[in-house]
Specification:
There is one protein chain. The chain has about 425 residues and is mostly helical.
Length: about 425
């Protein structure tokens, strides 16, 4: 392989790497802010809602988590159009600004006993702002990373969209573990849970300045120079209805499985398996760290063998093994066995997570790519990902917890049908730059 030092294209490679690293750093902070809510739900839920049993409080917090997802399609719509018309960099900068405001609002809001119903109302407003932010973030960052990567390494570099997404979640859990080990549990319950939200707000301010210095992508510049049609809702669903439907359906099973094994798993290990909050957090952190590391491996593999084999592999394994994995987790009391089971599930999900961003970006032309990636994904993510915790807890509350396992299995099966029928985007990409 030619070294960068002797490669005449080295400046271009360095430019790409700098842009990818810069975009990824911002994506990490965005998702840290989003996931802190879930990581600290067990601690802050009693402060924002009336006193009651733990499951009822978690249901209330999960409902607001789902409400935040309702804004994601709106954010995807507004900021997807914004990123297509004003540039990927502009979209990324706007999204992190909204995320910063939402995090700081949660950090300073008094509890239910102090301001009554105003507390959960403000919590809802903050999550709506963050939902708007994340709705635009996914499309802008997925498009930016896919366009900045070269043709031969597009799967590898675009996999960092989920590396940073997972890193944000992992960072939130690590902050939780640090606070659990350094603070008295009473202090963490009383006020310590506000610290991670304040950290997220400050980090978002830093990222705002980083993103202002990012370079724009060649795809956007060409589309603007050539006078391509304007991005918009009507343009997307009248000119590209098939691609939009494919994005929604290929996302449904993948995003539900991802949220089931990452976001909801921490609660499942406490409420169902019987682990302590600390042990559940440790299992979640360890498995997510390994999960993060294998994303570029799978993304790089897709550059060699194509995107379709990985997605089909996820679909087949997900249909066959989701129910057995969950039922095994119900009864295990050994944290190592629990960790291995969760890790096995996450390895399966990697067939979706590592390449979903580039697959979606490769389906659309440049002038509508950010909106095309963001809006159909956000719709599917809201319906299936955002409600995953709430659906799981509802099944548990009704006394039929295993209904959730079948629900996840069924949605993966629907996505598998799409994977089997669609063309391999690595061979039919609409990202034209080398």
């Amino acid at each position: 392989m030619t070294s960068i030092a002797n490669d005449p294209n080295a400046p271009d490679r360095r430019h790409r790497l700098k842009s990818i690293i810069g975009g990824s750093t911002g994506n990490l902070v965005e998702w840290y802010d989003w996931y802190v809510y879930s990581a600290f739900t067990l601690y802050f839920a009693p402060h924002f809602f009336p006193k009651g049993d733990r499951t009822a409080q978690l249901l209330s917090a999960a409902a607001i988590f789902a409400v935040g997802f309702l804004m994601r399609p709106i954010g995807a719509w507004i900021m997807g159009i914004y990123a297509d018309r004003r540039g990927r960099k502009a979209g990324l900068t706007l999204s992190v600004t909204l995320m910063c405001a939402g995090s700081l609002l949660i950090a300073v809001t008094p509890g239910y006993e102090t301001i009554g119903v105003l507390a959960p109302t403000i919590l809802v407003i903050a999550r709506l702002m963050q939902g708007l932010s994340v709705g635009g973030e996914y499309g802008a960052s997925a498009t930016y990373l896919s366009e900045m990567a070269g043709r031969d390494r597009r799967g590898f570099f675009s996999s960092f969209q989920y590396v940073t997404l997972i890193s944000g979640q992992l960072l939130a859990i690590c902050v939780l573990l640090i606070l659990q080990s350094t603070m008295a549990e009473a202090d963490l319950d009383a006020w310590g849970w506000r610290i991670p939200f304040a950290i997220g707000g400050v980090l978002a301010i830093v990222v705002f300045y980083i993103r202002r210095g990012l370079a724009e992508t060649e795809s956007y510049a060409k589309a603007k120079a050539e006078g391509a049609p304007k991005s918009g809702f009507v343009e997307l669903f009248t000119r590209h209805p098939r691609e939009a439907a494919v994005v929604m359906l290929l996302t449904a099973g993948g995003t539900l499985a991802f949220y089931a094994y990452s976001i909801y798993m921490q609660k499942f290990l406490v409420n169902t398996s019987g682990f302590s909050r600390e042990t559940a957090s440790q299992i979640n952190a360890a498995t997510l760290f390994l999960f993060m590391l294998i994303q570029p491996v799978a993304g790089g593999l897709s550059d060699r063998i194509g995107r379709k084999p990985l997605m089909v592999g996820f679909g087949v394994a997900g249909v066959l093994l989701t129910y057995p994995i969950f039922t095994a987790l119900e009864t295990t009391r050994d944290p190592i066995i629990a960790g291995l089971l969760v890790m096995g599930a996450l390895v399966i999900v990697t067939g979706y997570t590592s390449i979903n961003a580039v697959v979606k970006a490769e389906l659309f032309p440049a002038h509508i790519r950010a909106l095309g990636v963001a809006l159909p994904y956000a719709l599917a993510n809201t319906i299936f990902g955002g409600t995953a915790e709430y659906v799981a807890l509802t099944f548990k509350d009704l006394g039929w917890e295993r209904g959730f396992y079948w629900y996840v299995t069924g949605m993966i099966a629907i996505s598998l049908i799409v994977y089997l029928r669609m063309r391999d985007t690595a061979k039919h990409s609409r990202i034209l730059e080398d």
